[in-house]
């Protein structure tokens, strides 16, 4: 008779598995530590993206040739670059904004050389726009007729600027985009509202 013997060997964990398990534990710890570091830097610096916004604007002069659809304007646009970060300066560059009529005809391009805004500071950007002979397309001509009749002229300002600042030691680079409507009473040229004329970073 053959006696069946089953030898029960305790299952030993192989060294390789131990190594793997410790690497996993170390990684998990590293993730927790990195997360805590990110949160504490965030809380310490409370980073906020720098923005460009329109503070005020006025249409000083407008002449329109109905036959040819030619538009002359003289207007002022007062913008400002704002750095809401309390701990770090923000650098702006490649700032370029197009002033458009009916979203199609470019009246002027507003530019700024590279500049820096100190922490928790603002820098004014003052533009005087003089443009003559901008040719409106058919849709634009219609829109201008309606605007003159209603006494409300609408222009749009679209563009972007490159922003650079730091969160702790980390450099952050983002484009900030401006896309807003500027309204002017005609003929007095004052601007009734400027809501939502602040750029957004994305
Ligand atoms: C930022 O500036 C404003 C006014 O200029 C001031 O009231 C505020 O306390 C400043 N904040 C920081 C964090 O420096
Ligand atoms: C400009 O004209 C509009 C509409 O006619 C009027 O509501 C506004 O008060 C005027 N603004 C100024 C500064 O005269």
CATH architecture of the largest domain: Sandwich
CATH class of the largest domain: Mainly Beta
What's the multimeric state?
single chain
What are the segments in which pLDDT stays under 50 over at least 5 consecutive residues? Answer: none
CATH topology title of the largest domain:
Immunoglobulin-like
Provide the number of structural domains: 2
Query: Per the principal axes of the C-alpha atoms, what is the gross shape?
Result: elongated
Question: Element order, helices and strands?
Answer: HEEEEEEHEEE
Overall pLDDT level: 90
Ends apart, CA distance between termini:
82 Å
Largest sheet geometry: 6 strands, antiparallel
Annotation field: number of helices: 2
Strand content is over 45%
Describe the protein:
- This protein has 202 residues and is an alpha+beta fold.
- It is 22% helix and 50% strand.
- The strands form 2 sheets. Strands 3, 4, 5, 7, 8 and 9 form a 6-stranded antiparallel sheet that branches. The protein has a 3-stranded antiparallel sheet with strand order 1-2-6, with no helix packed on it.
- The longest helix is centred in the N-terminal third of the chain and has 31 residues, at 15-45.
- 22% of the residues are buried.
- The model has no long low-confidence stretch (mean pLDDT 90).
- It binds 2-acetamido-2-deoxy-beta-D-glucopyranose (NAG) (2 copies).
- One 2-acetamido-2-deoxy-beta-D-glucopyranose is lined by residues 151, 185, 188, 190.
